[in-house]
Here is the input.
Amino acid sequence: MGRKAAIKTLMITTLSLSATWAPDAFAVVRTSKIRHQLPIASNEDFPTDPFVRRQIRFWESIFQKYKSNSIVIHDLDDPLAMLDVIDFDRYVTGDGKVTSIEDSDQTPLVQKYIDRYMVAIERFAKYKDGALKFGPIEQRVFEVYSREPQMLSRLYGGNIKLRGQGGLADTFLAAANRAQEYLPYMEATFKKYGLPITLSRLPFVESMFNLKAKSKVGASGLWQFMPDTAREFMYVGTLVDERNNPFKATHGAAQLFMANYRELGSWPLAITAYNHGRGGMGKAAKTLGTSQLGNIINNYKSPTFGFASKNFYSEFLAAVRTYELVTRTGLVKTNRSLPAEEAFTLKRPMSVREITRITKLPAQTLIKLNPCLNANVVGSKLDQLLPVNYEIRLPKFEKTLIRRSIASITSSKSTFQANRR
Here is the structure.
């Protein structure tokens, strides 16, 4: 997306997993069956308080106003306190020339901006209003922090940290168009689980609906499941990683949301737990004796409860509102059609080679319909058996064909060999 690692919201890296196949693990997520429906909320059950609303306004500006060629310099603890915007496409140099800045030069430039503003903040902590005499940077800092007494008090106390946030307006618009391939299925799935369909907007925060999104810490897929969390709901291995199947991962996300809500009792906490963990949010609420997210954001101290966790709920709500805006205004045309493929459960072990032979589908087409299958499954592992009850997605017209073909074939005597973890 053209932004450096230090200032990106999303990071795409390479992921390598060492898990081995286990035949009974594939049946955990069965997209054709919905169990344990929980009618627990409606789309109106996403409350906000004044501080969270300030966060939402910041993220709305990131999603709607600032493009990926720009960086916003802002207060780490109060993002709406925005000090500067760097436009890398039209950067004005010290001698007044307008130029563009290459990606390799952006991170050090942003750091120089932050360092200079921090010098100004330190001067206010030392000299109070006397810092204004140092120049326009100090005057800009005072302009932002003098708007409210509480903010000015923080400035004089020197209790301020800054960060750079890349704009996402163009990225969001592209993601909203990509989302049309998946949102009808996601909405239908959450509705079946009794969950608010608004939760289907969370991938805007997690992956921007990039099917191949992988984070630097190991999260993968549209829903950005970490391996250990994912294994509660789906299979994660070297040849098959169901986190990368948007349909199976949607069921896993729905089950995770249900578990979070049942334990934490509110959507602000349950949604934040998607990022910070159910146990972490439970500990935060217990430590402070409150379920009010704004209170927790401002008062809970934990080395793992950082900027991403504190902003996760507000970023989600800003994404919800931004998606409503781009669809309502016609910038994105919504799709109401469910996918043209259907899930099919294997009645016996079958290899990709056999499935492609029966269905006449090219192996690469099968991989495209089932992105949880690693590329090796159509390479060196073409004859690796997928186990009984494994669910694959096929074009609707192929579903009947494969059922008939399998029925006409004598049951395979081959065994599925795998080492358990």
Observations:
- The first helix runs from residue 50 to 64.
- Confidence is low (pLDDT under 50) at residues 1-30, 409-421.
